[in-house]
Amino acid sequence: MINKLNRFVPEGYKPFVSSHDYKNYDRKLIKEKEINNKIEYLSDLSQVFDKLNIQNGMTISFHHHLRNGDFVQNMVSEEILKRDLKDIHYAPSAIFPSNAILSRLIENGNVTNIDTNYLNGPVSLTIGDGKLKGMLVLNTHGGRPRKIESGELPIDVAFIACPVVDKCGNGYGGTGSAACGSLGYANSDLKYAKKVVLVTDTIVEKLEKVELEGKYVDYVLKVDQIGDPAGIVSGTTKITKDPVGLKIANLTSKLLLELGMIKDGLSMQTGAGGTSLAVAAYVKDLMLKNNIHGSFASGGITGYFVNMMEQGLFDELKDVQCFDIDAVNSYDKNANHHGMSASKYANPYDEPVVNDLDFVILGATEIDKEFNVNVVTDSYGKVMGGSGGHSDTAHGAHISIITTNLIKSRMPIIKEHVTTITTPGEDIDVLVTERGIAINPRRVDLLEKLKNSKLPIFKIEELYELAHKITGTPKTLELEKEVIGVVQYRDGSIIDSIYKYRK
Predict the structure, then answer these.
(1) Sheet holding 203-204, edge to edge
(2) Gap between the Cα atoms of 115 and 466, Å rounded
(3) Are 109 and 133 in contact (CB under 8 A)?
(4) How distant is the alpha carbon of residue 313 from its chain centre?
(5) With DSSP H G I counted as helix, E B as strand and the rest as coil, what are the percentages for the chain, rounded to 5?
(6) How far apart are CA 402 and CA 188, in angstroms?
(7) 198/167 Cα distance (integer angstroms)
(8) Is residue 358 a contact partner of residue 268, using CB atoms and an 8 Å limit?
């Protein structure tokens, strides 16, 4: 496997360096919180705040498995507003449009710093306007547990939404009125936060399946409803019908075949978007045609991969979060559908599953001629996403492939320099567009395999020129000087800055 360890920031980029020393943290795990033999069961959030003595300046965390259907972060936000607590550090694994109340906390100075892996919706616009008094730090899915487990991100109180909890304080995500499947992002919070509150709407006598062990739990809060499971489906989880997307997917599958990636024992990950799932569909056809049996698919799991496993194409699914209801149902019933913690998924110091991927299919808002990829901001500088597992999987997988239209909304996707580096170019191996394929010149091995290929392979500079001939050269984006956040790579280093949006 190619060594993707030497990272860089291209000439011209001047990343902001925080006064916090991100690099000199203790890489040995801090001690897990002491085992708790006494759990209190409460039904009043205000009482939880009083018992925990939640004060100004504390760090509070949440997870995002209910995605756009989550109610728990909003409940806590309302209580913070009611008490007018100040200078709170929020550390949710992701922020969605449904968490719009957080904008009020930011504007009111209740929340002044945010660590998260992904955000979109009203909160991203509020932060983009420069209203967060402190700093936004965008982590990766693997970087977040690394920060928590190393002590770099100490959490005072973790509020963990949990669909079902038993009378021993154990939790499970696969059943209940708000079942969401795997609770992988909550695992580090559970084990390392100073205090842990499981928030649930369903309490049973005893759980047969346990994900979150009660020995780490301090309080169980019973509420009417923790969320709407329909909100788990965020964006499309269906194969695209767009001819351009299908062409990109078809090219990608042919490339994988020529590179010898469609083989017995293959392991893969794709996103949940239409083009990514179309790649999975073409791969599925090739596996069936050639009687190929894979080892595993990983990441956020959709019903499409459940179907592939149930057809015998994969031995197992390794799931850190479920992207749709079919995946949630499979998680509860299929013995080979396994949950995993975010740390086991992608923490660079935990022998992560991402390192065992043969290939990963990823998207891009922008990519530049050095293969740096942006999925944090759009081409106008607006914050609209985050790395999530993008740079984790790109680094770990043997082959990382970006699939995208060459031109979107009359804008070329290949730039001279991306607006914000999310994943450094040394971690990206291939770009596939409807007009052709570009191989990162660092991957001499791939170029050698493809030297006699009839696929439309170009240098990325050639695709850049082709796109600009069609669209013309866009006006260079001028960013404000005010830094509102930073992009933190999975190992803790800061690789780029995020600037206030220029209207």
Answers:
(1) 171-172, 164-166, 203-204
(2) 39
(3) yes
(4) 25
(5) 30, 25, 45
(6) 30
(7) 12
(8) yes
Q: Which residues pair with 377 in a beta bridge?
A: 383
Quote the strand ranges of 162-229, DSSP E.
164-166, 171-172, 195-200, 203-204, 219-222
Question: Which tokens hold the place of 314?
Answer: 């994969």
Give the Cα separation of 502 and 478 in Å (integer): 8
Per the structure block, which two tokens stand in for 425? 């170019």
308-318 b/e (C-beta count within 10 Å ≥ 16 → b): bbeeebbebbb
User: Beta strands of 302-368 (E only): which ranges?
Assistant: 314-322, 337-339, 359-362, 366-368
pTM of the full structure: 0.92
Q: In this structure, are residues 434 and 405 in contact, taking their beta carbons and an 8 Å threshold? A: yes
Structural element, H or E, at residue 105 = helix 101-107
3, pLDDT greater than 80: no
DSSP code, position 33: P
**Residue bearing tokens 């925080």:** 18
417 half-sphere exposure, CB direction, 13 A CA radius: 15
Picking from 215, 222, 275, 224, the residue whose alpha carbon sits closest to that of residue 247 is 275
User: Alpha-carbon distance 281 to 308, whole Å?
Assistant: 9
309-324 pLDDT, tens digit each: 999 999 999 999 999 9
Q: Are 167 and 203 in contact (CB under 8 A)?
A: yes
E strand residue ranges, 358-429: 359-362, 366-368, 373-374, 399-403, 407-408, 411-412, 414-415
Neighbours of 411 (CB within 10 A): 16
User: What CA–CA distance (Å, rounded) separates 428 from 393?
Assistant: 10
Residue 319 CA to residue 334 CA, distance in Å, equals 12
For residue 212, the one-letter residue type is L
> 459: how many CB neighbours lie within 10 A of its CB?
13
**Cβ proximity of 366 and 413 under 8 Å:** yes
52-96 tens-digit pLDDT: 999 999 999 999 999 999 999 999 999 999 999 999 999 999 999
What span, in angstroms and rounded, lies between the C-alpha atoms of 210 and 168? 11
Residue 161: strand pairing partners: 199
| Closest of 315, 55, 39, 313 to residue 200, by C-alpha | 39
Count CB neighbours of 334 within 10 A. Answer: 15
Please check whether residue 431 is in contact with residue 367, taking contact to mean a CB–CB distance below 8 angstroms.
yes
Can you tell me the distance from the alpha carbon of 225 to that of 10, in angstroms, rounded to the nearest whole number?
48
List CB contacts of 83: < 8 A, sequence separation 6 or more.
49
Decide if 166 contacts 203 (C-beta within 8 A): yes
**Residue 93, CB-side half-sphere exposure with 13 Å CA sphere:** 33
What's the rounded Cα separation, in Å, for the pair 259 and 150? 38
